[in-house]
Amino acid sequence: MSMTNAEVDAVVAARLDDAMRDANGGAARPLAFSAFDSGKVEDLAQFLEAAVGVWIDVACKGHAAFQIPPDADLVLRVSTAAAIRLDVADAVARAMMKRFQHLQPLESDIRCALQEAIGNAVIHGNLGLDGSLRATMEGLRIFSATMEQRQSDPALACLPITIRAKAHHDGVTFVVEDMGAGFTPPTIGPEPIPAVAAGGLGLAIIHRCCAQLRFDSGGRCIDMAFRL
Amino acid sequence: MQFTTKRDGNRIDVSVSGKLTFADSATFPQFVEQVTKGSGICDIDLGGLSFIDSTGMSLFVHVYDAAQVSGLKVVIRNATGAVSETLRRASFDTLFEFR
C-alpha cells in the first residue's frame, strides 16, 4: 500500500490494508493501491498516471474500504463531492487509454458514457435527486437548490462512487456503482436521442456509446461493455 | 463552466467556456434568467466550450422554452468538435439556428 497526498490515520490505513488483502485474495494478480485525499487534488488525470491499480479517496470516510472489487485493472473510489468537483470521467478514460493503448479508438465513446454514468450516480444515486423536476423552470430552481443543499451535507458528500475498469483484447468494461436507493432501469431502444430536460437523455447516450449495457444491485450499478 | 453576458439594447451576447456538465446544475436557473431576459436576439457563443453532457444539454432546453415564451430569437454560434456533434445528435439544431 502507498499513501498519496494525504495524511491517512492509522485506523483507516489498517482497514484499507485488510480490505485490499481480501480483494487481492480473489484476484488473478495483486493490485497496488493508493489512498489519496481528493480535497487536495486539482488534476485527477495527472494523478491517475501513476501505475496503481486501486485509488481510494479517504474523503469517503467510513465507506472507503467497503467491498473493494477484485479482478480489475483500475479501480477508483471517490467521494460524491470529488465526483462533482473533479473531471473523473476524463481522468479514468485517459488513464485506461494510457495503460491499454489498443483501446484508444474507443476513447470518445468511453468518455461520454462514463460522464453520463457518473452524473447519474451523483445526482440520482448518492444525492437522491428527482430528475423529472427539471421538466419546468420552477422545477429546475427546486432541483438546483436541493442539489446545492445536498452536496453540502457531509453525510451525502462523503458517499462513494466506485468506478472499475477491466481491459480485454477486443474491448473494455467499465462499472460505475453508487450507494443510492437504486432504480428500475427503463427499457431503452436504439431510438434517436431526444432533446428533453427532464432526464433519461443520459441513459440514451450511454446506450448509444456502448456495445452492451447491464444494471445490477437494484440499479445502483451500471456495467458498460465497449467493443473495438 | 464559465459564462459571460453582454447586453446592448435588445441584443444579448453570451460566451460559454469550459465543460458544461451535471456539476454545473446549481448555476442553471441563474444562466436561464440572465440569458433569456428581453425579446430581441440572444447570441450564444460556444467556441470556448470543450465538452457537454446530457445535463448540460438540458440547460439549452430551458433556454429554448424561455425564449419561446418571451419571443427571443436564440442563435448558437461556434459549436465545434464533440460539442457540435453531441448537440446535433440530440437534434438541438432543430430548436436553434446554428452558425
What's the topology here?
The complex is a heterodimer of chains A (228) and B (99).
Chain A lengths: L1 E3 L5 H16 L7 E4 L7 H4 L6 E4 L16 E6 H6 L2 H12 L7 H20 L10 H15 L2 H4 L2 E9 L2 E7 L23 H9 L2 E5 L4 E7 L1
Chain B lengths: L1 E7 L2 E10 L7 H8 L5 E12 L1 H17 L2 E5 L3 H9 L7 E2 L1
Parallel strand pairs in B: 2-3, 3-4, 4-5
Antiparallel strand pairs in B: 1-2
Helix pairs in contact in B: 1-2
Overview of this structure, please?
The complex is a heterodimer of chains A (228) and B (99). Chain A has 228 residues and is of the alpha/beta class. Chain A has one domain: Heat Shock Protein 90 (2-Layer Sandwich), CATH 3.30.565.10. Helix content of chain A is 38%, strand content 20%. Chain A contains eight helices and eight strands; from the N terminus they run E-H-E-H-E-E-H-H-H-H-H-E-E-H-E-E. Chain A has helices at 10-25, 44-47, 80-85, 88-99, 107-126, 137-151, 154-157, 201-209, and strands spanning 2-4, 33-36, 54-57, 74-79, 160-168, 171-177, 212-216, 221-227. In chain A, strands 1-2-3-4-5-6-8-7 form an eight-stranded mixed sheet, sandwiched between helices. In chain A, helix 5 (107-126) runs antiparallel to helix 8 (201-209). Helices cover 34% and strands 36% of the residues of chain B. Chain B contains three helices and five strands; from the N terminus they run E-E-H-E-H-E-H-E. Chain B has helices at residues 28-35, 54-70, 81-89, and strands at residues 2-8, 11-20, 41-52, 73-77, 97-98. Chain B has a five-stranded mixed sheet with strand order 1-2-3-4-5. Chain B is globular, with a radius of gyration of 12 Å. The interface between A and B is medium-sized, with 32 and 29 residues. Chain B: This is STAS domain-containing protein. Chain B: Residues 14-99 form the STAS domain. Chain B: It holds the Pfam family STAS.
